[in-house]
Amino acid sequence: MSSAEPEFATLAVHAGQAPDPATGAIMTPVYLTSTYVQEWPERHKGFDYARTAHPTRLALEKNLAALEGAAFGLCFASGMAATSTVIQALSAGDHVVCGNDLYGGTYRVFTKVFARFGVSFSFADSTDPRALAAAFTPKTRLVWVESPSNPLLRITDLRAAADLAHARGARLAVDNTFASPALQRPLSLGADVVVHSTTKYLGGHSDVVGGAILVNDEALYKEYKFLQNAVGAVPGPLDCFLVLRGTKTLPLRMDKHGANAAALARHLVAHPEVAKVHYPGLPGDPGHALAKAQMRGFGGMISFELKGDLERVKRMISSCRVFSLAESLGGVESLIGHPASMTHGSIPREERLKAGLADGLIRLSVGIEDVKDLAADLDAAIDCSR
Ligand SMILES: *Cc1c(COP(=O)(O)O)cnc(C)c1O
Known about the structure:
Strand content: 5-15%
Order of helices and strands: HHEHEHEHEHEEEHHHEHEHEEHEH
Bound molecules: pyridoxal-5'-phosphate
């Protein structure tokens, strides 16, 4: 065996997963247990209580760490639980600089929950390094960005954001849910913390809710590990198994999601009833050059605006037959959504408009179906919405 680090697709299938030593089972067992028998007080096989340590979860944590090129991984019951853990490591008085185009639930937990505990948050356009720099205060401990962002697919220069944070004594956390590690590895660009909703591309089949944190710094890992056990928002063993099953095909799926999305984005740009398309893979997109430099592909998410009013948008998204009208993203099936009333409904309208999220914006999670059927479905729905 060569000692070189295996390539990404090999890690996706094998990292963290050795055959079960008791039986040789090739798949990681779903250990349905809450506790473990000890030989002697504190003498055990590394597992004492299932909130603290769990073998199926450990396999997933190792797998995700390998995929992000991280030394350590920690899994949580949801993406929001992972996000909350990063903020729980801060203290009252600390300040966070955030991008202004974030998942609605992230905005909600920051402003409606953690603000009550004395952590303060400022929102700035993270695609503009000057705007990001201007949002810092002497209390800033953390910078939080999504790239590509949700739902406008804006690209933040992660290397520049990391340099800026580090120069001010802060850390950079990147929510890498939209790209997945198959397309972008923020730790290699200088980020300190990567957060995922494994519900999306990592799980990949819309059958599980989960989250993860990946880091290289051991002290930071110990802090988050302490919180994982102390707060207790851990995923169940079957959920961990499902995400492990998902990551095995992550590179294959991301290639297909990306190819389908690129074709659909071009199709929509050429459509006379479409006013605007946001997709970093389009050469005219403001984030295209940066995305090309820091990502291995442009991903499966598109957002666009139709000509006409909001009622037309509602008619259009309700008349698709292959695309399902639903929240979430990253599964094999195509989804269509209306961020202003669905995923981003918890952001006040004024804030949404300021960030460029129009009332009529439509978001697509492009699946792995045949792209001809996807394009025909959108065309038919646009036609009958007139
Ligand atoms: C879905 C999502 C989350 C939240 O994850 P859950 O698993 O739903 O808790 C966070 N960030 C992004 C970018 C998301 O899409």
